[in-house]
Write a structure and sequence with these properties.
The complex is a heterotrimer of chains A (249), B (73) and C (355). With 249 residues, chain A is of the alpha/beta class. Chain A has one domain: Rossmann fold (3-Layer(aba) Sandwich). Chain A is 38% helix and 17% strand. Chain A is globular. Chain B is of the alpha+beta class and 73 residues long. Chain B is 14% helix and 32% strand. Chain B is built from two helices and four strands; from the N terminus they run E-H-E-E-H-E. Chain B starts with a strand and ends in a 5-residue tail after the last strand. With 355 residues, chain C is α/β, with parallel strands linked by helices. Chain C folds into two domains: 234 residues, Rossmann fold (3-Layer(aba) Sandwich); 113 residues, Rossmann fold. In chain C, helix 9 crosses helix 12. Classes of the chains: A alpha/beta (249), B alpha+beta (73), C alpha/beta (355). Strand 1 of chain A pairs antiparallel with strand 4 of chain B.
């Protein structure tokens, strides 16, 4: 008799996600959903969705969701978590949403120590709108608005959100992971689980950055996008736990 | 003995599972699912070491994994 | 009813709390500062939540979040701050979320002036953000009226699942008057339990609060909104018609301008002038019937008096008068206040035929 060890998490709908083939937004959504199932929080979680590819979560999740304006998810989540402290509240945002238009919102929410979790998918592009340069686009990386590659002279440098947020006093967990291979996906999942657990324990603000890809707008095959991440993204954005209130005790 | 079951309707043919199977047991099929994607199949499932790399790397969670129930007789 | 001598900003804040407000997010901007200041101590006392946001944009989105959990949520600001919040107001309307927005308006456009003005009529009644949504817009002209409106604002908001606006100005926000404060309302979530997010002890299907829909869904929402706005026009108009029965001259004014105009009207009535006032209390829906039922054989002229230049209510009056009588306008702007003499002289020019 065969025992089922794994099947798709049940807090996402039994349909294909709207993401492109090989898109790690789908992977991220899957592991978050697995963590929610494992923590038994499917009935108690509220996901604040941004504007970007991850808005497609509206059609994919089977949990309470609140769609927010571009960049405003941390403010919306603040209103939710303050009103419903027992709910497990998390935002899932892309780099345009969080690190460009929503920079004030994320840094202020983190600085206030709002007791929710932010999961930040960094794929160094604006996916939904067709591949424009994002705050996290690498130097020399091409995009529809940096056709010759990002030039630091005119567009500055890719922004390191974990390094910024770890400097704030209030956050209790700040970590960056990458989803380029199974081992790293498992590490990321544990990080998300820890962030959610800290939230459930009422510890404070947690921030999990996930390095992801965009085969469509990087113009590469899915597998090559993972290679691009290893040779570029992962070199610039260090993967580590920057702050962990538990460890620092 | 382990069992890997690819739920083809979820597959988008990205090829990750094929690439990350340490034993190279997964091959891309030539059948298309409802959305028109080719999806992989497993050969010689008896060689599967149960590492679940395919399960973890699949962005769609399309690969189900089964293990022989421990003989608790 | 508890009588209290209060400042406008504080009176409207207190009334909102008594009316069930349990979440406020706002940002400093003159002349509405006393609202967040008051809420920062009063709301926690009432078991509510106060947050000073990092911007008006963040604050209105915090209200969006709180409202999605069924909490009675409010924000306030002044003119430039309201401009920043209009994206959020459009999202509140699109996501069908109740909320209270208070604008204590000041001189504009741009940084304008921190002094009072009525320069946000068009913004409030025509376009509080993109998308064509409308809000019930109330314009009190005494602090008691502001209290009564704020006390019941959330009933409208939850009935319609829409944000509601109270448009005051820096004068009303700053003057002090005696007000009768109603009792603290018993909170109940029966208006919001059908759609709010957040687990309440009963496992149910997942819920979604969003303002993005597939095309057909958005169109059907917009059709429902169109029907709602028609219903507001039929059922929710609030207006004061003052001495209109035999009026030959009709002043149209709201808020602080109507208060000043009333003085001039009573003075001129004393001198035998047949003059009256239409005072919209809801700026949207605009009181159309008050214009339609006038006897235009007697009407010699309308005088649109506002604390803004050019007059912003002019076109709405013109649409209803349809050329059956001339419409004159008089106002001060830039933060300069209207005064009795100025208004009286302006009216006399019209009644004396020199306007």
């Amino acid at each position: 008799m065969m025992e089922k060890i794994y099947s798709r998490p049940n807090c996402i709908v039994p349909m294909q996600s709207g993401y492109c083939p090989g898109c790690l937004h789908s992977t991220a959504t899957k592991i978050i959903a697995e963590v929610i199932d494992e923590l038994g929080q499917g009935h108690n979680v509220i996901n604040v969705l941004p504007v970007g590819c991850s808005s497609m979560g509206l059609l994919y999740w089977k949990i309470d969701m609140v769609g927010s304006a571009h960049g405003r998810a941390p403010a919306v989540a603040t209103g939710i978590k303050r009103s419903r402290p027992d709910s497990l509240v998390f935002t899932y945002q892309g780099d345009g949403d969080l690190a460009a238009i929503g920079l004030a919102e994320i840094l202020s929410a983190a600085n206030r120590g709002e007791k929710f979790t932010v999961i930040f998918a960094n794929n160094s592009t604006y996916g939904m709108t067709g591949g424009q340069m994002a705050p996290t686009t690498l130097i020399g990386q091409k995009s529809t608005t940096s056709k010759k590659g990002r030039d630091a002279e005119t567009a500055g440098h890719p922004i390191k959100m974990c390094e910024l947020i770890k400097e704030l006093a209030a956050p209790v967990f700040v970590a960056r992971y990458t989803l380029n291979n199974p081992q790293n996906i498992r590490k990321a999942k544990q990080g998300i689980k820890k962030a959610f657990q800290y939230q459930l324990d009422g510890k404070g603000f947690s921030f999990v950055e996930l390095l992801t890809n965009c085969p469509t707008n990087w113009g590469v095959e899915p597998l090559d996008s993972l290679k691009y991440m290893e040779e570029n993204t992962m070199k610039y954005f260090e993967q580590k736990v920057f702050k962990d209130e538990e460890e620092s005790k | 003995m382990n069992k890997v079951d690819i739920v083809s309707k979820y597959c988008k043919g990205c090829g990750y599972c094929i690439n990350f199977c340490p034993k190279k047991l997964l091959k891309m099929g030539n059948e298309r699912n409802m959305k028109g994607h080719f999806f992989p199949y497993i050969e010689q499932v008896e060689k599967c070491i149960g590492c679940q790399n395919c399960v973890t790397i699949c962005p769609e969670g399309a690969i189900e994994f089964y293990k022989e129930a421990q003989d608790n007789g | 009813m508890a009588k209290q001598f209060m400042k406008g900003c504080e009176a409207v804040a207190e009334a909102a709390v008594l009316g069930g407000c349990r979440f406020f997010a706002g940002y400093p901007i003159t002349p509405q500062n006393e609202i967040p200041e008051y809420m920062s101590s009063r709301l926690p006392e009432a078991g509510g939540i106060f947050i000073q946001g990092e911007s008006e944009v963040a604050s209105v989105n915090m209200v969006y979040g709180a409202a999605s959990t069924g909490t009675r949520a409010m924000t306030s600001s002044s003119s430039p701050g309201i401009s920043l919040k209009t994206e959020g107001i459009s999202y509140l309307s699109g996501a069908k979320l109740p909320a209270l927005i208070v604008n204590v308006s000041r001189g504009g456009p741009g940084l304008g002036s921190i002094q009072p003005a009525q320069s946000d009529y068009l913004q409030s009644t025509k376009a509080l953000g993109h998308g064509g949504h409308r809000l019930l817009v109330f314009a009190p002209y005494t602090l008691q009226e502001a209290v009564d409106i704020a006390y019941d604002a959330f009933e409208y908001a939850e009935r319609d699942r829409s944000p509601v606006m109270i448009l005051m100005d820096g004068c009303l926000g700053s003057i002090m008057e005696m007000v009768d404060l109603p009792p603290m309302k018993e909170l109940s979530n029966q208006n919001t339990q059908g759609w709010k997010v957040g687990y309440d002890g009963v496992k149910r299907g997942a819920r979604m609060i969003t303002s993005i829909y597939p095309e057909a869904g958005l169109e059907s929402n917009n059709k429902n909104s169109a029907a709602m706005y028609k219903k507001w026009q039929e059922e929710d108009v609030k207006v004061e018609e003052f001495m209109l029965d035999d009026a030959e001259y009709v002043v149209v004014a709201y808020g602080i301008a109507a208060r000043v105009a009333k003085q001039a009207i009573m003075q001129l009535r004393g001198q035998g002038c047949k003059i009256g006032l239409i005072r919209p209390i809801t700026l949207y829906p605009f009181p159309k019937k008050s214009f339609e039922k006038l006897n235009y054989n007697n009407i010699k002229a309308f005088i649109d008096i506002e604390m803004t230049i050019p007059a912003q209510m002019y076109d709405d009056i013109d649409l209803l008068v349809r050329g059956r009588a001339p419409i004159f306008e008089y106002g001060r702007s830039g933060g300069i206040l209207l005064d009795d003499d100025g208004v009286t002289d302006a009216i006399k020019k019209v009644t004396g035929g020199q306007a």
